Amino acid sequence: MKKIWLNIHLLYRKLTAKDDRRLMVFLICLVIATVFWFLNALNKQYTVDLRFPVKYTNLPKNKILANSPPDEFTLKVNSWGFTILRHKLSMAFSPLVFNVNEFTAGQMENSPNSQFRVATRQYINRLSSQVSNELKIIDIQPDSLHFNFDRLVSKKVKVKPVVSYTLKKQYYVEGPITTEPDSVLISGAESILDTIQFVQTKAQQFKELDKNVLRNVPLESSDAYQTEPGRVMLQIPLEEFTEKQVIVPIRVTDVPEQVNVKLFPDKAKISFMVGLSHFSTITANDFSLSVSYADIEAKKEILTISLNAEPLNILSVTVSPEQVEYLIEMK
């Protein structure tokens, strides 16, 4: 039985080997035929569409482009198959350069008009020089280009600082955060600049500040306009603050002539934070406290103190006590 199975196995191997040789011969013949067919096909001329990126240069100096012309041209070209295949296998085409002023003989720059339409077919010869001389351009799509221009203008706008910060204990921002210069010149399309009232600095962040900030920072950029200068000096004035207290008399407003009002107490303590540079210059005379006789007429038993005047450059103002009692005497 084993001998029979061995003979069957040997016969199968012989038949399989014979079929493999036939299959291999067939595949080699097929590959050779395909190669010859492909070479023959490439030796013929074809008309195909190729897409090229476009770069627009030399735009009118006294105008600014307000629209976006097509960023690529589709060229219908005629050439040998080998040439077309080589171009299609290349990863990317070099951009076609559309020299606006040169191609239009300066008509756009010298014309008062703001809208122009140009047919692309008239530039086939000019563009052919930028493409391989092995390719013959038959047609261009799109068949026309539209250029919409706006008047180029300039104006000054304020600079708006964009700042976030934290301060060390007892340090405060002593004045407004400013930039130098406080205004810059922007240039661009008139329709766009009409909507712009200010430009911002790029966002700046500071932590645990304890001294003045003076930093050269960039302005936010935009493709819609140019900014001159593009950087400004950011200034954040800081000062160390300390607590100060003053005793201020309380007056009663709108008191009738025949009435005398006694307050208990008749003075209040005002506490506040003040910068060291202003500490000695601020006195009780810079404050004004009062209560209203109208509250007495309204039968209120306790009068609320109002802070009517206080100096600049102080923070965290408190009045103690906030209310007083009173006694009325007739003159």
Provide a short characterization of the protein structure.
By secondary structure, the chain is an alpha+beta fold.
Poorly predicted ranges: 1-5
Number of strands: 24
Tell me the helix content. Answer: 10-25%
First CA to last CA: what distance? 147 Å
Residue-averaged pLDDT? 85
Measured on Cα atoms, how large is the radius of gyration? 44 Å
Describe it.
InterPro entries: c-di-AMP_regulator (IPR053154), YbbR (IPR012505). Keywords: Membrane, Transmembrane, Transmembrane helix. This is YbbR-like protein. The structure is a single chain. The chain is an alpha+beta fold and 331 residues long. The protein folds into 3 domains: 98 residues, no CATH class; 85 residues, RNA Polymerase Alpha Subunit, Chain A, domain 2, CATH 2.170.120.40; 90 residues, RNA Polymerase Alpha Subunit, Chain A, domain 2 (Beta Complex). The chain has 7 helices and 24 strands. Strands 2, 5, 7, 11, 12 and 15 form a 6-stranded mixed beta sheet that branches. Strands 9, 17, 19, 20, 22 and 23 form a 6-stranded mixed beta sheet that branches. It starts with a helix and ends with a strand. The N terminus is likely disordered.
Features:
7 helices; alpha+beta; RNA Polymerase Alpha Subunit, Chain A, domain 2; 331 residues; six-stranded mixed beta sheet; 24 strands; elongated; 3 domains; 47% strand; disordered N terminus
Write the layout of secondary structure elements.
Blueprint: H1 2-42, E1 45-57, E2 63-65, E3 72-80, H2 81-89, E4 96-99, H3 100-103, H4 107-110, E5 115-119, H5 124-128, E6 136-141, E7 144-160, E8 163-167, E9 171-173, E10 178-180, E11 183-189, H6 190-193, E12 198-200, E13 204-209, E14 213-218, E15 225-228, E16 231-236, E17 238-253, E18 259-264, E19 267-275, E20 288-292, H7 293-297, E21 303-304, E22 306-309, E23 314-320, E24 323-330
Parallel strand pairs: 1-4, 7-12, 8-13, 17-20
Antiparallel strand pairs: 1-3, 2-7, 3-6, 5-7, 7-11, 9-17, 10-16, 11-15, 14-16, 17-19, 18-24, 19-23, 20-22, 21-24
InterPro entries: c-di-AMP_regulator, YbbR
Transmembrane segments: 21-39
Keywords: Membrane, Transmembrane, Transmembrane helix
